[in-house]
Each structure stands twice: as structure tokens, then as C-alpha cells.
Amino acid sequence: MRANRLKEIWASGKPVINGWCNMPGGFSAELMAAQGWDAVTIDTQHGVIGYSEMLAMLQGISTTPAVPLVRVSWNQPGEIMRALDAGAYGIICPMVNDAAECAAFVQACRYPPLGYRSSGPTRAAVYGGAGYLAHANDEMLAFAMVETAAGLANVEAIVATPGLDGVYIGPSDLSLGLGGPPGQDQDAPMLMAAFDTILAACKAVGVKVGVHTSSMAYSKSMIERGFDLVTVGGDVRFLNTGKREAAEMRAWLDAR
Q1: According to the 3-state scheme, what is the secondary structure of 83-147?
Q2: Which of 18, 176, 213, 245 is the most buried (most CB within 10 A)?
Q3: Is 46 a catalytic residue?
Q4: Which domains does the chain have, with CATH numbers?
């Protein structure tokens, strides 16, 4: 079976850099994955992406060495299993608030006896290769998002969940939940203290921890802080940077 490269990167002592897709399209996902990210996440929660589009995007990513991940829209077993059966090699699950919710999520990612994932890896067996059913429990990644006040309060119980591979922080929702403003790349003391609480809980039990960022500078600072995975940016932000050139070109034309 195809090995999960993210586990190999972590075993070597290095962090993972992740790209993000909010827009549908197999070619756009392939183009994102070809930029050199270790992983690319397809966002079916806040992205404008349906199942068929997700499938095409997984196929596009699979033309590159990048590991395909999916953020599902909610902690629903059927949705989690469909993403895995389509070829995702890891699931990021939003709004995990306690140990019971985390256990339900993790078990949806695992075949019996470790969970209750249904057997039917229609495309996953093509992407993963021979031995998928026998080895999928060892290769699929389960990342629970801690992004609420309740999740933060229960983080030690969450990270103790058997089979959980990692925690992924949604900074904007976490800030909102703690009474702060939404937004990325914040350095408010209250939010940084929450980050450190989550980091300490994860490190204590050997669970990986990732964070969503929107700049290379902030990603670097989070790696220095101890994060094992950083999302450096995504298709929407990268496309929006083109407006600078459009504005400069418009100003040049107007000045002629």
C-alpha cells in the first residue's frame, strides 16, 4: 500500500507544509499540488466544493507527490467515510468539542476492530494500491479541530482519544470562541496562550498539532513555536494577490 508521506516527514523530525483549496476544480487542485507542498487540503466546509468536485480534485492531487487531505464539513460518519473512500489520506474534522465527539470522529476513520468505517474503498484502493484494507488504519490521518472554548477546555481529554493523529487549530473560530475578533495570523496574548495550551497537551501524548495561517512569516513563527504542520496559504489568497498587479496596471493606464 502507498505509504503516507506525512508520517515519514514527521518521523524525520521535520514539519509539514500544507496548501489549501477552497475553489472547485481538478486542474486547480493539481496546479496547487504541483507547487511543492507536502500536503494539499480540500476544504468542503468553507470551500465551495461538492462531492464530485472533491473527487476530481483528489484525482488532480494524485498526479503529484502531495498527500491529499480533506476537511469535511462536519463530524458526520458518512461524509468522513465517503472522503476516505474517494482517496483522501487524512481527514480534518471541524468543531470537535469533547472526547466523545473525538472518539466518534476517529472511529469513523478506522476499520474494525479500531472503529466502524464501512468497507468499500472504491477509489481509495486504486490510489492506495494493494493491501489498502489491511493497512489503511495505519496510514489514514485523523485530525480533530480544536477551535472553540469547549474544545480548549477539554483538550487534554480530546488528545487522549485512542487513534487520534493530530489536532488542527482554527484560529479565527478559536478567537471568536474566546471573546476575541475573527481573523488569521493574530498574536493576541489570549490566543497565543490558548495555542500554547493546545501545543503542550499534544506534545505530552505524542499527538501532532497543526495550525491554519495565511502568510509565510506567520507560518515560520508557528513552526518555531512547535507546530508540526502549517497551512501556509490557499488558492483564494494566492489568486487575490493578483489584484495588486491589476491595480498597478489600472493606475498606469489612468495616468497616461
Answers
A1: HHHCCCCEEEECCCCCHHHHHHHHHHCCCCCCCCCCCCCCCHHHHHCCCHHHHHHHHCEEEEEEC
A2: 18
A3: yes
A4: 5-255 (3.20.20.60)
